[in-house]
Amino acid sequence: MTKNDGYLSSSDQPDICSQKARLQQWIQELFANFCDRKPL
Q1: Does residue 4 fall inside a structural domain?
Q2: The whole model's pTM is what?
Q3: pLDDT tens-digit series, residues 6-18
């Protein structure tokens, strides 16, 4: 497996931060799209 697969290994610690940032961005876009479609 490569570091880009998103799996954790002892040498992949720095990649966790980039995965987290990418996940947070995806969640923000998901909520933004949901709110645009269905206003609260």
Answers
A1: no
A2: 0.44
A3: 555 556 566 777 8
